Amino acid sequence: MELIDQVSISALSKRDLLLIIKALEYTNDNTNLEDFIELRNNIVKELCFLTNTTEEQFVTYLESSN
Known about the structure:
Oligomer: single chain
Order of helices and strands: HHH
Structural class: mainly alpha
Distance between the termini: 36 Å
């Protein structure tokens, strides 16, 4: 198996991205492990950078399709 240096999200739907973000929030809330919220924040920060949006705009966009 080849080592993976980067993961592509191009195959993920908006719904999948929203589920990942919400799952990380839920897990952080229920375990109080900061790693989950840090991962959530890093993912959202990178996606906002790539889409030139704020966090609020990006999450609203993901939620609008559900």
